């Protein structure tokens, strides 16, 4: 079982093998955490992502980290669900994002990974429910990843994640 750490900060400053970005299906970059990761990595990240697009919700793909390296070697792009009230399978899709990202990390032989709060920004997933799903899914995952860092950008997300420890 991986060690899980909850921290507050900027995911682009993490010292891990791979960071996960909450992408859109085009993998071209967007707002929020995805925009921050793309800005830090440089324009090559969008080109590499576009070559693998489209990525459906719940799936994940990896690219090199470009300008985030050498401390971060890979960016794992996952597409979260758009919140539609909770009755349209959003929780299952979100759990798949975490599971699939860990599978990709295993394929990359990543020993450490940092996740943002997937789908809680513009996609509108409630951060308390998202924190519960993130933590329970990561705890139940069969992975070779040794360290998982859940990186909260804001205080509310941090509180919800800490409550799940």
UniProtKB/TrEMBL annotation:
By its UniProt entry, which SMART domains does this protein fall under? A1pp (SM00506)
CDD domains membership: Macro_OAADPr_deacetylase
Q: Boundaries of each Macro domain copy?
A: 1-165
Q: Name one Pfam family in it.
A: Macro
Which InterPro entries does the UniProt entry name for this protein? Macro_dom, Macro_dom-like
PROSITE patterns xrefs? MACRO (PS51154)
Protein's name according to its UniProt entry? O-acetyl-ADP-ribose deacetylase
Per the UniProt entry, what species is this protein from, by scientific name? Lentzea tibetensis
């Amino acid at each position: 079982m991986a060690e899980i750490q909850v921290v507050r900060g900027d995911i682009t400053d993490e010292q891990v093998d791979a960071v996960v970005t909450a992408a859109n299906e085009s993998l071209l970059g967007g707002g929020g955490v995805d925009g921050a990761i793309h800005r830090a990595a440089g324009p090559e990240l969008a080109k590499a992502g576009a070559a693998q697009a489209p990525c459906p919700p719940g799936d994940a793909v990896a690219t090199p980290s470009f300008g985030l390296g050498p401390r971060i070697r890979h960016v794992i792009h996952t597409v979260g669900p758009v919140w539609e009230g909770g009755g349209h399978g959003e929780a299952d899709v979100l759990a798949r994002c975490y599971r699939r990202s860990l599978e990709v990390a295993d394929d990359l032989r990543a020993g450490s990974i940092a996740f943002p709060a997937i789908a809680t920004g513009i996609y509108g997933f409630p951060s308390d429910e998202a924190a519960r799903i993130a933590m329970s899914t990561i705890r139940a995952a069969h992975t070779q990843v040794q360290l998982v860092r859940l990186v909260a950008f804001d205080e509310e997300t941090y509180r919800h994640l800490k409550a799940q420890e």
